Structures are given as structure tokens and as C-alpha cells.
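User: Thanks for the earlier help. One more: Adenosine kinase. Can you show the sequence and predicted structure together?

Assistant: Of course, both are below.
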Amino acid sequence: MSGGNFELVAIGNPLLDMQIRNGEAVLEKYNLKANDAILAEPQHLSIYQHIVDNYEVTYVAGGAAQNAARCAQYALPPNSTAYLGCVGSDDLANQLRAANDKEGLKSVYQVDSSTPTGSCAVVLTGHDRSLCTNLGAAEKFDKSHLETAEAQQVIKKAKFFYMGGFFLTHGLESAKVLAHEAKARDVPFSMNLSAPFIPQFFKAQVDEILPFSDLVFGNESEAEAFAESHNLGTKDLATIAQAIADFESATPRAEKRTVVITHGAEPTIIAVKGNKETQIHQTVKINPSDIVDTNGAGDAFAGGVMAALIMGKALDQAIDVGHKLGRMCIGQVGPILKFPKEQVM
């Protein structure tokens, strides 16, 4: 895969998801919430062995930005996407590489041989999923990796950058390198709020990278967390989306920032910097019996939107593509898309 355009370059935390069903007892044991995402603290670290010992575990290549990039690649021409992150020198990393290779996503990994590849316990209860992440090698990413020949090859070709908000827990300086690259070449820089704890506990990092972002993704709980941490005094999603859109800008592209907030089966909200009114985009109703796994649905949505924008689609068309990929994702285990592309684009 030395050739290719690598139009989309994503950066984030590569993780191997360890997924279980009917995990109500695990939520109770580890004091986890049914529809949430957290970083593992010392009291959570035994969860990984606990689920291996007591449940049937499905292993799925994960990491939010990596999921989104694979889903974007699904809709794009071959060799259009590349992904930056740090892994260990172990079998988990090999599984991630194999999954990316299968989907045509180029893995541009930094390798930390002293730290295991990150993992995420995905505890499914009904249609909810709770994520408990041990970052492992993912948080060892160093911005020096961006200067390597392999990384420079894809960064300098990129026409679209994407960062998962989870990366801000440790990688702000690396994210800023890509944000400044995007600014210098007048190409999009996109970010995802990723989880409520990101705008809640990493507000300073969000506020530093948001001015460079001209496309921002989030869901209703992440938007509410942003509103709370920024003292907006509202839970109205349209008002919050507009506030994020109107946040200060550090690039000409961010002067036209678009914010896309999903809300499960409810309409998706779109806000554009400077506009007086937000827009809504209806979703297609899904039979609850057809929902297999909601993990990664937001990543699939973001990947679909970005792929469509890269292919020159209008925003409303791109959101339609995002919705289609999200629907595909929740109909099977993990963000793996198996249907003909003709059904999407």
C-alpha cells in the first residue's frame, strides 16, 4: 500500500475491543453506567480478565477514530485513508493491522515495545454499550512519529484530517501539528467530541483544538457535557450545537464551522457558524429487533459523512450517507460494513 492518495488521515487511540453481551452484572461490579465511556481507573483494571473468565468475548478492532477511518475507507476508492496511533509490539497490534488491511486502511503505527496495545471492555446491555478503556500503548504516542518518512508521506498528501476526541487525553501537541498542517494547506480539520468526559474533564484541550476545527461531530450526551463545562445554562441541543459552531476560530475554514449532533433515532442537528437557526436532518426509523450492537455507530456515521464530503457530496447528502453507515453498523457486531457500497453512495 505504498501507493494511494490517502485523502483522509485520522489520528487516535488504537484499541482492541473486548465485547460481551448481557453484562448487567459487570456494570454493577465495576460501578459503570449503561451508556457511557470512561478511562479505566485502578479499580477497573481487573475487568478485562474478569470478562474473559466469565463471558464469551468477541474481539473487534476498535478505537473510535480508527473505526471512523475504516468506515470512510469502505465508501472511498482503494488506498484513500491512513491512520496514525501507537500500539505495542504484540498480537493485539497484529490483529488491528490485519483488520485495517482487510478494509484497506493504511496503519501508520508508532510501536512502543514496552507497553501492551490498548484494549477496551465493551459491555452490552440491551441496546446500550458501556466502554471502559485501558489506553496502554495508545497514550505513548509521541509527536516525533509525525516526522517519520511514513507519516510524512500520508500527512503531506492528506486533503482531510480527523481526530477522535479521546486523543486529547494525552495527544494535544500532536493534534495541533495536524491542525496547523490543515491550516497551512487550507484543507479540513475535523474532530469528534467522542464521550461526555472529554468536554467535561479535558475542557482546556477541547478549547485549544476546537478553533482549528471546521467540522465537529458529537452526540446528545457529549453536547450536554460541553454545555455544562462551558456554562451555557441549557440542555437544548440546537442551542448547544450553535454555540459550538460559533466558538472562536483560528483558521478561515473554521469561520464557516459546521457542527453535527446526532441523537439516536431523533433527528440529527446541524449548526453553521454565524447562522441564526440550526437545521434538522431526519433519521430513518429502525425496528428495535434489528439492532444488534450500537458500539461504533457514531464512528460509522462520522466516517460516512467524511467520505461523502471527500467525494464532493453536499452536506445533506453526506449526512444521509452517514446515517446509512450508522444503520449498517448497528445491525451487526462492531463497526464492520459488509453490504454493497451501491447501497450507501
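User: Great, one quick takeaway?

Assistant: The domain at 8-14+63-117+136-339 is CATH 3.40.1190.20 (UDP-N-acetylmuramoyl-L-alanine:D-glutamate ligase).
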